[in-house]
Amino acid sequence: MRIADVVIDRVIPGLDQAWSYEVPNELSVTVGQRVRVPFGKTQSLGIVSALRENEGFDKELTLKPVLEVVDPYPLLNPWMVELGLWVAQEYLCFPMQAFKAMLPRNIRLKPYTNLAAEEVCSVVGPRPKRGRAGSRRQQLWNLLAERGPMLKRELLASMPEMRTTLRDLIKEGTIAVMRMDKAQIPAGTEPHPSPYVLNEEQARAVEQIWAGPAGSKWLLEGITGSGKTEVYLQLIHKMIHDGSQALVLVPEIALTPQTVMRFQSRFGNHVGLWHSSLTDSERAKTWQAVRKGDLAIVVGVRSAIFLPFGHLGLIVLDEEHEGTYKQEEHPRYHTRDVAFWLADHTGAKVILGSATPSLETAFFARQHLIGWIRLTRRIGSRTLPPVQIVDMREELQEGNHSIFSRALQQELTQALGRHEQAILFLNRRGYASFVMCRDCGHAVQCPRCSVTLTYHQNQDQLMCHYCFFTMDPPKICGHCGSRRIRYFGAGTERVVEEVHKLWADARVLRADRDTLRTRQSYYQLYQDFVEQRADVLVGTQMIAKGMDFPHVSVVGIVAADVALHLPDFRRSERTFQLLVQASGRTGRGERPGKVVVQAYEPEHFAIQSAMSHSYDGFYQQEIEFRKELGYPPYGNLWLLEVADPSEARAQNTVSRIADRIGVLADMGLQILGPAPAPLPKVRGRFRYHILLKGPRNPEIVAILSKIEHEELSCSITVDPYYML
Ligand code: ADP
Ligand code: ZN
Ligand code: ZN
């Protein structure tokens, strides 16, 4: 009797999702296929996660049969099923939640009956353990790992002696055979080679990665403008000529218009885009094109990591340090970890690119766990801009109450006089981040969230940035009745107003979540500024990366330390990254440019190292802190969050959970909390946190997995990025 393990498309708290069914003789079922099965008193759809013979199975047990095979071919190829099961285990979710992340919504796929379909062999498992070096098994594996996927027909024609070896490796799951369309190159655009001759460092990077073994992982560390993107482009050019596919991940498509355009202009309609504003049908179309091998390159956001590539050769994570690579909802994966899994199981190479690598990645490189390539020079002879740091406490003492220091004012005046452009960063939108009574100190709070409301001048409204609650600004204090209401904590709107006051003729653009809601508005803003239809661009971190403006000669960072006091262990890392990224926005044209950093705590090492453009300096200090306190990369972290509209119930739940995880202390985990979350109330829910730090093993994961699946108001995030 054949038995299929089927992951049921239903989430029932506390219940395992995979159930066993008998496969009737007349049905042909493969792993990854969708099937209909009886479930309780009804039926359910599910995905076959494993097939086996009934050996060792209790004969007394009569299994229900698989009723129907839904699609004529598997929706998920074998490595995707394996990946889904791994993601479920790694990030404590149900397998179906992981599978769903891999499938376009409302899948309506045409049956896969293309006659041009060919059988393609590719490496999906690790190098075979049995077999001497030089044995047929090794030879075949090496060949496929090096060359990438091959047509089975061609492989056997040239090496008929490999027939049995191939069969064995397929049986073991080391090599997979998939049916796919012959990669059809769409008519019209032949990719054109680079207009540039690579410099020495770039050429070496391309060579090293190209020559590296299948599945190798690399940190490509290079300051902005050092030519990383050109390295990706040229490697991909080689890859697709070799018949492989490439995936380029960017933090957010809308924020990187230039990167996207460079891929499109180099590779034309070989490039598909994958991002959140695609419609369901566009999504399904791209998904199919990737699966069939019609699309050679995808540029996309994190969820593109789950696209069904048949012969993936390269994965690039550009700006790999960005927090957007961590998914906050189920499955709560980190894109870098999934990319590493893919490298290990499909042989794709991975490049992590950044000017300011995450501490984890920098650590892996220094431990030789991944390759490490540095681009140390900017293209051309452009230098990094000098950075001047201004202590805003002194400005205040010397009577300057403006949000701009005298140094920044002077630089701006000069730049505008020379018809050059300036960018001003402030990582806070709105006009004022809080509204407070001068007499009693009462600040207006959101009634549903424990945060102060932000004043937005354009709408003349107070708004909550967590739940979007809005209200009219009060004329008198709700607490003491005073009329002395004041606005504090400047946001981007306020910066624009100050620019208008000081430089009446300057044309100003504002870039934040309020002004840039669509990809179109983003391209528009980019075009307007690059073509100098404005002089000053005021924005949040949205504009800190990926944009190249040759006429910008001054970058001002209005408040460098806004994030330094958040209760989040990545606060220094984030501050450092933001400062470096922001200062990379100048000095891209002919002039070296100038950066002015305003801070209330300028002596902080994150600010000091950013000022001297020293990643190593920053890393040395930060890694010590991580080591001392056991934060990643030195320990694993789990954030347990309980959120409930009833405060009493939230407290009850969190103390019950605290009891349940008490045993973890004996397994070497440090348990912090339970305590109210830094934001104790959001959208009307009371929030409590427990933070776990320490080693990780299957026993620990099993306990946490049970809690995640059984406690409905508790969610557990592995290696969280959002700690508030
Ligand atoms: P990064 O991705 O590291 O910021 P880019 O690849 O965007 O760097 O390169 C910066 C600029 O230099 C881009 O405008 C790019 O077109 C140009 N460039 C890159 N490589 C070369 C090269 N070898 N010769 C000339 N220009 C180059
Ligand atoms: Zn008051
Ligand atoms: Zn709110």
Automatic annotation (TrEMBL):
CDD domains linked: DEXHc_priA, SF2_C_priA
Cofactor(s) needed: Zn(2+)
Any one of the GO CC terms: primosome complex
GO terms under biological process: DNA recombination; DNA replication initiation; DNA replication, synthesis of primer; double-strand break repair
Enzymatic reactions: ATP + H2O = ADP + phosphate + H(+); Couples ATP hydrolysis with the unwinding of duplex DNA by translocating in the 3'-5' direction
Molecular function in Gene Ontology: 3'-5' DNA helicase activity; ATP binding; ATP hydrolysis activity; DNA binding; zinc ion binding
Binding site for Zn(2+) 1: C437, C440, C477, C480
Pfam families noted in UniProt: DEAD (PF00270), Helicase_C (PF00271), PriA_3primeBD (PF17764), PriA_C (PF18074), Zn_ribbon_PriA (PF18319)
UniProt name for this protein: Replication restart protein PriA
Organism listed in the record: Sulfobacillus benefaciens
